[in-house]
Amino acid sequence: MSIQCRPISAEEHLAFIEARGSASFLQTPAWGKVKPEWRSESVGFFVDGDLTGVGLILYRQLPKVKRYLAYLPEGPVLDWARADVKEHLDALVAHAKGRKAFAVRIGPWLTHRRWTAQSIKDAVADDDVTLLSQQQPDETTLVGTRVRNALLHGGWVTDEKGEGFAAGQPKFNFHLPLRHDDGTQKTDDELLKGMNQLWRRNIKKADKEGVTVRTGTRADLAAFHRIYLETAKRDGFTGRSLSYFELMWDALNAEDPERMKVYLAEHDGDLVAATTMVTVGDHAWYSYGASTTAKREVRGSNAVQWQMIRDANAAGCAVYDMRGIVEGVGADHPEIGLIQFKVGTGGEAVAYLGEWDRAINGPIHWAFNQYLKRR
């Protein structure tokens, strides 16, 4: 059996994802256009001539040296249950080596562990538990364990001590399942009943206060961005430019006109909350959110989330993905409010396998990691 990794067209790449049902939006061909500071390439995996997987590789050049980090955020897109995962990844490394990469970084979009809302609440309430991983997961997937072992035995390394979002894509994420175990879609009433009392009360209050939620156009990104910068200043993070969101809109919606949407929650003519949502197949992501300090009592943030959840459900999505959470669940953790907000939806925390590196040139890879640590 021969496995090859070689360039493919954006059309072949997208067709594979569509046939599969979904993949991370970070692995769509369009995402390469959102990251112009990286050189992007669509690749396919071929087993005896049959296409078995795809990937978006982002190449980042080292300063002053023509060597690259080959990065596949939340990728590649493979059937991770295959017995030949190691051989697929070996083919990826061989391809990247031919592109003068000093290392390959992957982030398998694969759930390894899962905690229900009740387990998360139990962890938050337990003074002896400060990290979610200290709480017994409700499920540990066999395929996740197998892939992790294949990576360890295949020479891949990961930093499992890292917490939060600094190293790359978040390892811990929050999902709201929109389907029953038998695959049938949940009703909006079932989703609402699954939420905690505070969420239901806030959704009801927003409705009573007259908050309206609408989907906007590209022109509405400016209004979203205005309160996004207000949120960034209030919460102490560095916001992205308006041009970034416009580029994201143009690239993703050129690939699929339903790929990215902007939502605006308004009260008496005032914008009180705004969000963006991205959908690929049967998976929808809450990607960015913003709210004003004024009129927080009308609960625009809950209203806009509820509208996105209902829209994702109406579109037949399997998961509404609220993206990253940090692992810390201690009462004094600075991000505890984020996980408490998300767990109120009745969803679940999932841990992916995280990001893994395979060095091609050991000394350059070591120097690169030292550079990252100094930043």
TrEMBL record:
Residue stretches spanning the membrane? none
Record key words, sorted:
Acyltransferase, Cell shape, Cell wall biogenesis/degradation, Peptidoglycan synthesis, Transferase
Task: Report the family membership.
Answer: Belongs to the FemABX family.
Q: What is this protein called?
A: Peptidoglycan bridge formation peptidyltransferase VanK-Sc
Keyword Transport: yes or no?
Answer: no
Look up the signal peptide feature and give its range.
none
Q: Indicate yes or no for the key word Protease.
A: no
Instruction: Report which residue ranges the record marks as coiled coil.
Output: none
> Which InterPro entries does this UniProt record tie to the protein?
Acyl_CoA_acyltransferase, FEMABX, PG_Glycine_Bridge_Synth
Q: Which Gene3D superfamilies match?
A: 3.40.630.30
